[in-house]
Design brief:
Keywords: Hydrolase
CATH topology of the largest domain: Rossmann fold
Strand content: 5-15%
Order of helices and strands: EHHHHHHEHEHEHEEEH
Organism: Streptomyces subrutilus
Strand order of the largest sheet: 3-2-1-4-5-6-7
Protein name: HAD family hydrolase
Helix content: 40-55%
Number of strands: 7
CATH architecture of the largest domain: 3-Layer(aba) Sandwich
Pfam family, one: Hydrolase
Shape: globular
GO molecular function, one term: hydrolase activity
CATH class of the largest domain: Alpha Beta
Number of domains: 2
Number of helices: 10
């Protein structure tokens, strides 16, 4: 049985810049924390998997003292958990407001995969309520109900560790060789490859310049035919899939049929 496993942020919708970043900053303001992330700073933070983990990068001794936070590690973890719960509430409100559109082609390909009997899933390091809100935005309630969702703290180690993908594959009883993961970042790609999955990449707002050696296909988006016409640009096609102006399910099936791409001879994948 073939399977399609999407990442969430940057894949289903370009949510980092217009969803997560303003939600983090609104949370910092509500809690009186002396920080606001700029777009340039957040471009670095997105390389840290998981929202709580990004927040914890703030916790230098100087920041803890300036913010009047507890020094006890357990109490500090509790504070971060409170921030993150509120940030998730703010973020899901942004998503439900409908201001962030789904990325081109993600729903079209999921509909084709569902019709062809493929298993559908999402594997993300974001909190599960946030993931489900983006999934419903991108797919609509009916198609979203066809997806298995693996998110947040269901595994301890976040991407680029392969744990979330390995857990999804194991839970769904899938053969890794029949699964294609859709990612937008190098960390996500490394997680998928580490779990033995093929990976197709659709680059997003903060990831266009990342190194995707090891991916089976790298495109600017999946694209869509008219009337929503958005043409994809192929950035890397080591298997010779040769998608047309928009990526089709048949192209992802070809990725699986071709097997893994040749390893890059000049570097490691970690």
């Amino acid at each position: 049985m073939s399977a399609l496993v999407y990442d969430c942020d940057g894949v289903l919708a370009d949510t980092e810049r217009h969803g997560h970043l303003p939600a983090f900053n609104a949370t910092f303001e509500e809690f009186g924390l002396p920080v606001r992330w700029s777009d340039a700073e957040y471009a670095r933070k997105v390389k840290v998997g998981g929202g709580k983990e990004r927040m914890k990068t703030l916790l230098t001794p100087d920041f803890v003292a300036a913010a009047g936070l507890p020094a006890d590690p357990a109490a500090l973890d509790g504070e971060v958990a409170r921030w993150h719960r509120r940030k998730t509430e703010i973020y899901t409100g942004i998503i439900r407001g409908g201001a962030i559109p789904a990325r081109p082609g993600v729903r079209r390909i999921a509909e084709a995969a569902a019709a062809a009997g493929w298993t559908l899933a999402v594997a993300s390091t974001s909190a599960e309520p946030a993931v489900r809100s983006v999934l419903e935005l991108a797919m609509g309630p009916e198609l979203a109900s066809r997806f298995a969702v693996f998110a947040g703290d269901v595994v301890r180690r976040k991407k680029p560790a392969p744990d979330i993908y390995a857990y999804a594959v194991r839970t769904l009883g899938l053969d890794p060789s029949a699964v294609v993961a859709i990612e937008d970042s190098r960390n996500g790609m490394l997680a998928a490859l580490g779990a033995g999955l093929a990976c197709a990449v659709t680059t997003s707002a903060y990831t266009g310049e990342e190194d995707f050696a090891g991916a089976s296909l790298v495109v600017t988006s999946f694209g869509d035919p008219p009337p929503r016409e958005t043409v994809t640009r192929v950035l890397h096609d080591p298997l010779g899939v040769h998608p047309g102006p928009w990526v089709e399910l048949a192209d992802l099936a070809a990725v699986l049929s071709a097997g893994p791409p040749p390893p890059p001879p000049w570097q490691e994948l970690t």
